[in-house]
Every structure is written in structure tokens, then in C-alpha cells.
Amino acid sequence: MTQAIASALEEKGHVPMKVAIRVDASWQIGTGHVMRCLVLAKKLLEKGHEVWMVSRVLKGNFIDVCQSEGVKVIPLPAVEKNHTPSTKQNDLPHSHWLETTQEIDSKQSLVALSFFHPDWVICDHYALDSHFEHTMAAAGTKILVIDDLANRQHECHILLDQNPFPHFETRYQNLIPETSLILLGPKYALLRDNFYQLRNNPKKIKNQIFVFFSGTDPTGENLKFIEACQHFEFLPFQIKMIYGMGNKKKEDILCFPQPDFLVCIESLPDFDSELCASRYAIGSAGVNAIERACLKIPSTLVCLTNDQRPMAEHLAKTGLYRYLGEGENTRVEDYIEEITWLCENLDAQTHRLEIDDIDALGCERVVSAMEEIK
Length: 374
Known about the structure:
The structure is a single chain. The chain is an alpha/beta fold. It has 13 helices and 13 strands. It has two domains: 3-191 and 361-372, Rossmann fold (3-Layer(aba) Sandwich); 194-348, Glycogen Phosphorylase B (Rossmann fold, 3-Layer(aba) Sandwich). The strands form two sheets. Strands 3-2-1-4-5-6-7 form a seven-stranded parallel β-sheet, with helices on both faces. It has a six-stranded parallel β-sheet with strand order 10-9-8-11-12-13, with helices on one face. Helix 8 links the parallel strand 9 (238-242) and strand 10. The radius of gyration is 21 Å and the shape is globular.
């Protein structure tokens, strides 16, 4: 951060903040937590604040990706292969994601951040709760928790849950301090700046279906989908399938021939623009569904994890989205039927959903909330 930016912030009454973000990615966890934290980190940097990510070296981590995006990362050491964490503070449904105990993780995080003395620690991890947060807060830092589950106690100054759940106002009752600021719903969704531009200046629509089942695709939806495509010689639209950088089945996917109507690619530098230009999308729930809703793109949802089920079912009940169910249960035949349905019904579908309140300014609101808490 330059002295000029620091001086400008102070003139506006905002002292530059030092922010640490504790988040992981792996084949087991997926990439969504890191990706949304990356968006928030870049917004904080843009506003003149200093940011370090703290991320463990797990298989399928995104440390290099974050660093390539200009965010500094402190790597926590990989856990020994045969290490079995103690059960104390380790009885959360997702405790295995951490590959160690909260006690060890918090101690390692404090040591890693000892040079930095952060004003804020942002925690986005289903395997961490008030045990970790209390240890960090005791070191004199404020805590922002990003959560989706509402299934454990938190000790935080701000709680962020960006998901469109029904009755979300009461989801965290008795789970956070009464003094916590609660930021709930897609109004606070951590979306890239590009979504604001594309929402207000949309691309010309292509005759294209956009398929994306997250960066890791834990239930193998891309493999099922490309196999389903083999049953068609011709389609009245093009399909662009992004199978993800963390997909462990990419070699199997690429073994299938690609029909003329299908393009398979690991990642897209213009992902947001291509999504915006698509007539329809097929993909996971979670943040990807929020991105599609922001751009008002009609879509078919698949639930890739148990954590996504409440959101997927809620969106399906609105009648605006088709829902294939849980990825553990989907079959090649389901995708054959869905492609067939699109062939027969796509022209009758609205190209864009009705306007909603996902304006892609959520990241601005979150940073502003942090700046206002002294």
C-alpha cells in the first residue's frame, strides 16, 4: 500500500486496515471458499487496505492461484499423512477438512501472523468455529466470519451469509453474540466487479448453453454430461463446458470425443462474459447459482454437496429454476433428458429472468461494514 493511498484513506476518516483471511481449498473442500475470499481480498486491496491470506498446503490447494492474482499468501504446513487429530474441538461435521485440530490451527495461524498484527481476521472455513475465533480475538483482532451452514457457534464482530435462504433472519439466532453485525442474503454476495458491469451492460446473447459444476466437480457431473452428449449427433445450440482446474477426472473427460456442438475447456479467462452471453446455464448451486441469478440467466441446478441442498431446494421452489437433485444420485440418463428438454423448450423460455436484488455490490458493502467498526 502506498503512502498516497494511506493518506487518502485517513482524509476520509478510514485508517487503512490490516486484514488476514483464514481459508482453504482442496479436492475435498472445493475452491468456492477461496474464490469468494479472493474477491473480497482484491476489493480490500483496491480500497487501500493490506491483506494476507493464510491457507494450508492441502491437496488441490489454490495458493498459487491466489498469488497469481496479486494476493499474498502465508502457507500453513501440510499435515503428516498418518496424523489423526484428537477429538477435542474436532467434532464438527466438517472437522476432517482441517486435517488437524482447531487448537493446532489457531496456534499455527497466530505464529504465521505474528509479524503482521492484523486488525481483522476473516474466517471462511466449515471446520472452524468459536474455539478458533476466540483464540484469534484474544490476540486483539476483530473477527469476520463467512458462513453458509448456521450449524455451529461463532465469536465474531461480523457474520456474513450471502445465500438466498428463506427466513434467513433467524438462522443464526443463539449462534453468535448479540452484538454481532449480521450481513445476510445475496445483497452481500461476494461477486467480482465484472458482474456489476455485465449486469448493467449485458453482452449480446449467443446461441450457447453454459455448463459449469464448480472448480472441483466432486460428484463427477462433467463426466456424466459429456457422456450424455455422445447420444446426440446434432443440437440446435452450442454447449460450452468448463470442467474446472481442480477436477480430478479431467483425463477421463478428455478421453471422450467432443461433438461439433460441444467445447470442453479447463478454465476461461473471460468466464464472466461468456456466462453473461449464454442463453441458458446448467451447473451447481452455491455461489455459482448466485452469479447466474445476478446476470438473470435461467438455469438448471444440481446440488453437489449436502451443504448446497437447502439453497438448491429453495431456488427450485421459486419456479424460476429446474432442479436435477443431488449429484450423488444424478445419472447420464438425467442429462440426456435435460438436453432433450432444452432442444424442445429452449425457444419458449425467456432469455433472461426478471430483475432481482443481486446488484453485485455486495463486496463494497462488506468492506464498508468492516471500515465502520472501530
